[in-house]
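Bit of a strange request maybe. I'm writing a small parser for structure token strings and I need a real example to test against, not something I typed by hand. Could someone generate the tokens for this chain?
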Amino acid sequence: MELSPKALARNGTTRALGAVVIGAALTGGALAVTAPAGAAGDSMTLRGPATNPMGTNFNYVISGVASGPANRVVAWEQFNRAGGCAPTFAGESVRALFTPASVYGLTVWTNQPVSGAYSVTAAFGSRNLGVHGVCAYLINATTGTTYAHDGAFWTNVNS
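Reply from user aminoacidic:
Good idea to test on real output. This should exercise your parser:
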């Protein structure tokens, strides 16, 4: 089985993606864990509601610019704010692999190829009370390098 971020994107495997990140770190792989200095043309912004009545559907729009090697948007939903979003795709991947869902509640939500100006809509439903969020990363699908990231949190409330 091929374990590159690109291959994982094709088959939707998220836990194995964390294994790629850890495996690269343990074997001295060249997987980057910080945004490269030349990423000035890359950007990402999240827009969506801050509060949602229970039982309603709502969207968050992930938009920005992908230049050079940045070519994929990956986003996770968090069911527990737990310190917010990691600053890199690699950091969030480690959380997905090693933190029990009951503690951190991390679920892959969006994994789409992008280029140039992009806009990706992530559809959610307010099914559980409390604070939830989305952590999004603009990455290179081959290397896993993070070029931009953003996070947003909302509260689902009784109407």
